[in-house]
Amino acid sequence: MNPVKALENHGQAVWLDFLARGFVAKGDLKKLIDTDGVKGVTSNPSIFEKAIGSSDEYDGAIGSALKKADRPIADLFEHLAVEDIQHAADVLRPVYDEFKGNDGFVSLEVSPYLAMDTRGTVAEAERLWKDVHRKNLMVKVPATPEGLPAIEELTGKGLNINITLLFSQKVYIDVAKAYIAGLERLVADGGDPSHIASVASFFVSRIDTAVDKQLDEKIARANDPQEKERLAALKGKVAIANAKLAYQEYKQLFSGAGWEKLAAKGAKPQRLLWASTGTKNKDYSDVLYVEELIGPNTVNTVPPATLDAFRDHGKLRDSLEENIDEARHVLAELERSGISLDAITEELVRDGVKLFADAADKLYGAVAYKRATVLGSAIGSQKMALSPGLEKAVEKRTEEWRAAASVRRLWHKDKSVWTDDDENRWLGWLDSPAKADIADYEDYARRVKGQNFSDAVVLGMGGSSLGPEVLAGTFPKKAGFPRLHVLDSTDPAQVRAMEQKVDLARTVFIVSSKSGGTTEPNVMKDYFFAQVSKAIGAEKAGHRFIAITDPGSSLEKVAKKQGFARIFHGEPTIGGRYSVLSPFGLVPAATAGIDVKSLIQHTLAMVRSCGADVPPHENPGVRLGLAMGLAGVEGRDKVTIFSSSKIADFGAWAEQLIAESTGKDGKGLIPIEGETLGEVSAYGNDRFFIDLRTEGEDDAAHDAKLNALEQAGHPVVRIVLKSVEHIGQEFYRFEMATAVAGAILGINPFNQPDVEAAKVKTRELTAAFEKTGSLPKEEPVVSTDEADLYTDAANAGELRKAGADGTLESWLKAHFSRVHADDYVALLAYIERNAKHIDALQGARVAVRDRRHVATCAEFGPRFLHSTGQAYKGGPDSGVFLQITADEREDLAVPGQKASFGVIKAAQARGDFDVLTERGRRALRVHLKGDLSSGLKTLDEAIRRALN
User: Fold this and answer.
1) Interval 291-296 mean pLDDT
2) Known catalytic residue at 50
3) Cβ–Cβ < 8 Å for 626, 549
4) Which of 140, 244, 759, 905 is catalytic?
5) Does 755 score more than 90 pLDDT?
6) Which of 38, 156, 322, 366 is the 20 to 30 Å CA partner of 730?
């Protein structure tokens, strides 16, 4: 007779430790049931990983599932697993019926990531039980300390439980007691225990592997031949002895009056299931852990190879209760040898959890890869070309992040991923797209459309303005909706230009301020509220204003007082620069008629790609962040961003995100945005290039230069969006990448400790103006016909030593002489930001780059104070700063206060400069006199002469 099938004559059921879709579909499982008497199937992450990751067997099912709807990686895997379990359970259902619910089970494991989480285990087990919806399902729960109460609770709720990762007799007793306690709870609640079955999966071969290793070490150290012989005699014996004694405990636990009372109500004993029965030591029989553990009312779950081997040459005998005293002697001898079986089994549980988690990582990585393949360009592609050294560093850290479960910890808001400060309080951006109230945005958009507004103006700074600016510049004007504008300046000319651009009587203003106390949006609101009041009447003015602010802010109070049409609340756990996919970005989007539902749906595809269940190897946001952070650590800290014409404004948003998040504590990444792509010779070895474009935006000359940079050894990341409608994916990718880069740099990416310093200085200066009617007097270090130059004594001394005398050119020449390799030069212009002035700064910055071979920044104040200003003050001391101010041609009053827009801007410029010099930065301020256009031309010429 077939030895495998004959095991049932000895009271032992054989289960198969294997599952795959084709194996069931092609009838192979049914064949084993018929020929070998197989009575059950067990699965685990390792089995599924091999089935899904090592073949194309599941590709069709994955494609079909994704055609219906995209879903997170864990959900996608679970969809596949549930189908497999259901199919296998259906094949085994006749066995279940024949043996009256004692056999015919299929086991599905809760996520190994939940091994130390009782509540998570219970919730997932109940969900799997409901989703599989088969009486002959067993849910696998690990025998960890946190798993024990879950076993009792789940049994009490009527679930069949397979307890896995069980190595110790002591823990087995606890497991059996938890099962019995669960049955008692079930009965007490009026349940029927006859429908419940359970197995305790007692692992075998892994114990011998661990014990034999320690025995070999002791044998090698022993000098006495008899001692060597005694130790050698224990090899290959401990696992079977341990299992035999566990079976003796089983007989005690499931006997006596207490158990008989439950049995009378139909309760079944929890059978011992011998797991890990494939022989790992080639010196031992390949059927050792089957032949030596045959006994009544037990299960042996075997891998296919062991099943084949036992069918071929297995020998049958009732071995489980043989030589029980010898089993006790073996364990006593092991203890006498100084080897702790308790310590080994505890370590094996930890290792088992880790091995299953590692397998789950590989499994989810395989599913993530197949999902990305199916979705194709629906998810923006990302290709990284890194130097061999950087590539190696990224691969090493990627594996470290995987092993440390860092992605899951990040999603679980574990602040130890960063600096253990307050990072856990600022992670609301992780799920803000999923929480977006689409119906409310759509209703709001319909109301806006009904008002026939011509224009919408966002009044905000930093995160409140730069995200909407990307949306305004990326999406074309929608018919029936207002054209979206952004104002983020206190420059009088810029404020006036916005006023002239729009029809005040037909414009809606969006006042956007997280705290509600930011100076710029408040004075901009005051100005335009007064102007709208003049245009349509004070009683109607409030109806043209929308507020976006955190609950309870001062702006909310003002908005209520002034009768704003709507107040949208921000999420307090999202910092401004991470807020574009929250109301701070979505309200302006809805106002402009942008399809918020589509924007969010596309974004959620990237959220899933960057999810907690996606290992770092397949996680685009994490991979980019690791590369950025590690490049920064290696000295390539100038993250140079090129954005194609359709998404040209994206770089300015990313610039703020990266600079304000990472530039602190003397560390950081310096984003370089808007710098034209040059020849290889223009760059030093401090660059990390990121190129973004949409499909179809091909530029052969641009690509040739990028390829040349890559060939020269510079890291180049290429990101391609399917369309502008997918821009939300890039917002999310870069938010995740920046958070990860912060962890690599060892900083808190969610605070901005140096931004407040400039605000304090500004408040001091404006307070002085309110008292005296003028800003405190300042003396230039030199005054020429074209300009006055300012700096502190330390900078002035250094510049004079470098040759600065009475001319603008000499001071600039001395200033640029302080620029060294791996520095960057920042031009900080407190003037109107318009196309003409942008071109002027661009010309100067490119001249500096090409002559000095350093990175350059061209910024407009006060806008950059809420963006790159943090990195300039708190980041690495590698910046050389040239601040540019100018005479105000025509100032503009702010209603209700003495300080005008021009005064506020001047105070901001001076406050910013004072903080730079107090931090020891290399800084020079040039104040242009007279006509600004002439002054900028003069400055450009002086810069070029100074560089020569």
Assistant:
1) 98
2) no
3) no
4) 140
5) no
6) 366
